[in-house]
Amino acid sequence: MMLQERIGKLNTFTSEIVRSMRTVKLCNAERCMLLKFKKRVNEIKEVNLLNDKVYSFVTPVQNLISIFCTGVIVCYGVHLMDVHLLTYGSFVAYVMLFFQLVTPVGGLFTFYLSCQTIKGSLKKNQPCHRISREVDMENFAYNNVDYLELKSVSFGYNDNEVLHDVSMRLEKGGRYAIIGPSGSGKTTIINTITGLYSANSGAIAINESLLDGQHLEEWRRWFTVVSQDNLLFSTTIKENLFFWS
């Protein structure tokens, strides 16, 4: 798990540096970033050395235990044959069965190590599995929108409240602008209206039909959002242009 976690951190760090290369160069931070990169590589090196030390100790011990068990079985089998409690054929069959059993037991050890490696690889994904899924209820029945209304909507992250008792009514055909400084909650309002965020209190409605309990895919068909992020998909220019249509 330690190795997979550090490799994941190195991949994340490298991706961030590649995306922010222009900023890094403008800030003359290449040397600082290089030192951080070397530090993470050395951490992976140390973990690999630790793993090699563990394997170099465990593997001989495992082989010695197997050899010891084999010797005990052979000696005990010879003793049983000397006192005529075991035939030669039965002894050979027993030894062959023992060797057939050794391989699966060794496989259990390998399986355990593989499970630990997989757990380390999936550690970053575990929080995603704990996120509750979007709840879709009935289909949105309106064929025409007359107004969109926010009724005393509040939203916050943990104890940090971003929106407090926000109320507004947007009529069909009107033009509205939400103005405020960075971090005042402009994007949060849009995300709440489109159902990306769930309001802590209050209600959002179209023609008196509340967002809560609506089919989110149908609800979002009524909105067109122009993102401020320069997001491009690895496809043709045409498909990028028509993605939001």
Estimated structural class: alpha+beta
> Taking all residues together, what is the mean pLDDT?
80
Number of domains: 2
The amount of beta strand, in percent, is 5-15%
According to DSSP, the number of beta strands is 4
Whole-Å distance between the termini?
A: 43 Å
Q: Catalogue the unreliable spans.
A: none
Q: Tell me, briefly, the overall form.
A: elongated
State the order of secondary-structure elements, H for helix, E for strand: HHHHHEEHEEHH
Number of helices: 8
What topology, given as strand order, has the largest sheet?
A: 2-1-3-4
Q: How does the major sheet shape up?
A: 4 strands, antiparallel
Helix share bin: 40-55%
Using only CA atoms, what is the Rg? Answer: 32 Å
Provide a descriptive summary of the structure in words.
A hairpin with a 2-residue loop joins strand 1 and strand 2 (160-171). This protein has helices spanning 2-19, 21-26, 30-82, 88-122, 126-129, 186-193, 216-220, 237-241, and strands at residues 147-157, 160-171, 201-206, 209-210. The chain has a 4-stranded antiparallel β-sheet, covered by helices on one side. It contains 8 helices and 4 strands; from the N terminus they run αααααββαββαα. The two termini are 43 Å apart. The mean pLDDT is 80. With 245 residues, the chain is of the alpha+beta class. The radius of gyration is 32 Å and the shape is elongated. The chain has 2 domains: 2-128, no CATH class; 147-241, 3-Layer(aba) Sandwich (Rossmann fold), CATH 3.40.50. It is found in: Cell membrane.
